[in-house]
UniProtKB/TrEMBL annotation:
Its main location: cytoplasm. The record marks H126, Q345 as: Interaction with tRNA. Keywords: ATP-binding, Cytoplasm, Disulfide bond, Methyltransferase, Nucleotide-binding, RNA-binding, Transferase, tRNA processing, tRNA-binding. GO terms for cellular component: cytoplasm. It catalyses: S-sulfanyl-L-cysteinyl-[protein] + uridine(34) in tRNA + AH2 + ATP = 2-thiouridine(34) in tRNA + L-cysteinyl-[protein] + A + AMP + diphosphate + H(+). The keyword Cytoplasm applies. This is tRNA-specific 2-thiouridylase MnmA. One of its GO terms (molecular function) is ATP binding. The lineage of its organism: Bacteria, Bacillati, Actinomycetota, Actinomycetes, Micrococcales. Belongs to the MnmA/TRMU family. It comes from Frondihabitans australicus. It holds the Pfam family tRNA_Me_trans_M. The gene is mnmA. HAMAP family: tRNA_thiouridyl_MnmA. Its EC number is 2.8.1.13.
């Protein structure tokens, strides 16, 4: 099989490419250049998208003995990931840029180009597994090492994309084993730190980065009844669940801390309240997809588990597709309240270890009613 190995410059993608070669595939390595100004991306040997990462990837490809190329995806990355990130914050939502990168870049733009060039599959270093059912349908599942499982960030994959994906690390028991294998192969990235944080915010100051692009305008901080209790310097700087940095100046009536419950960009307002008001009894989103075969009767409630962050524990839930204002919507009702969920986040639905699908959260319903005036 002809395989395109996406090589980030980290240890995982290097070992994944080597394993694809060991499996007998015809492998070509490619590194994605995501910025024409590399200084605008995070540095420090974190294995994600900088010049030093490109060089690390090339050294690994040379040792494996496969052709290696760098593809310029900077324009697509800016449009689909960076601009989307700014637009979502401007709309008062909490985006996940890594999720968008997987969806729009690694498994849309990259796979589309790979297939056009005659490749059969794209190989990455994600910790996830592909399982083929009795009827030959390919399914996306959690990795064997649950502590390293990355199936959540792959929840945006479609059935066609899964059919052309390869995850050689899915059955690996631990990251330590991957590093040991990399060292045995002589890869210089064997002990390279994992990538983390947002790659296109060089200093890690998300609030400052957004202020430069969105602007900062003073607005009101409201309680759940709509009463004005303070001022802020820009709604984009706040996220649902945030406690620090509110600077209201006086305590709540019950003396308990306040948390951000909602961001209203149209009014430039931030709504705060007690921690228990962060408990959510229902989430829903119109932008949803199925990772493989859809449920036979998606409009009928079905049991599942829902995960709302990459490293969150899954929660038992019931899901269904309903019609709202003429549009389909995936509605998920957890059996116990979720905490601190924000519109813009991704909810990934599982059945056992299988990733069934996902939705971008449009709305939430609090488990705690708003107090009467």
């Amino acid at each position: 099989m002809k395989v395109l190995a996406a090589m980030s410059g980290g240890v995982d993608s290097a070992v994944a490419a080597a394993r694809a070669v060991d499996a007998g595939h015809d492998v070509v390595g490619v590194h994605l250049a995501l910025s024409r100004m590399p200084g605008t991306l995070r540095t420090g040997s974190r294995g994600c998208c900088t010049i030093e990462d490109s060089m690390d990837a090339q050294r690994a490809a040379n040792m494996i003995g496969i052709p290696y190329y760098v593809w310029d995806f900077s324009e697509r990355f800016k449009l689909d990931v960076v601009d989307d990130f700014v637009a979502e914050y401007t709309a008062g939502r909490t985006p996940n840029p890594c999720m968008r990168c997987n969806e729009k870049i690694k498994f849309a733009a990259l796979l589309e180009k790979a297939l056009a060039l005659g490749f059969d599959a794209v190989c990455t270093g994600h910790y996830a597994s592909i399982v083929t059912d009795a009827d030959g349908n390919r399914e996306l599942h959690r990795a064997a090492a649950l502590a390293k499982d990355q199936s959540y960030v792959l929840g945006v994959l479609t059935r066609e994309q899964i059919d052309h994906s390869m995850f050689p690390l899915g059955a690996t028991p631990s990251k330590a084993e991957v590093r040991a294998e990399a060292a045995e192969r002589g890869f210089t990235v064997a002990q390279k730190p994992d990538s983390h944080d947002i790659c296109f915010i060089p200093d890690g100051d998300t609030r400052g980065w957004l202020a430069e692009r969105v602007g900062a305008e003073q607005g009101e901080i409201l309680d759940r009844t709509g009463a004005v209790i303070g001022q802020h310097e820009g709604a984009h700087a706040f996220t649902v669940g945030q406690r620090k940095g509110l600077n209201i100046g006086f305590p709540a009536a019950d003396g308990k801390p306040r948390f951000v419950l909602e961001v209203r960009p149209k009014d430039n307002a931030v709504v705060v309240g007690p921690k228990e008001a962060l408990d959510i009894r229902e989430i829903a989103g119109q932008k949803f997809s199925w990772a493989g075969l859809a449920p036979q009767e998606p409009t009928e409630p079905f049991d599942c588990e829902v995960q709302i962050r990459a490293h969150a524990d899954p929660v038992a839930a019931v899901a269904r597709v309903s019609v709202v204002d003429g549009r389909n919507e995936l509605v998920i009702t957890p059996r116990e309240p979720l905490n601190g969920v924000a519109p813009g986040q991704t909810a990934v639905v599982y059945v056992g270890t299988r990733v069934l699908g996902q939705c971008t959260i449009d709305r939430t319903v609090s488990a705690v009613p708003i107090p009467a005036l």
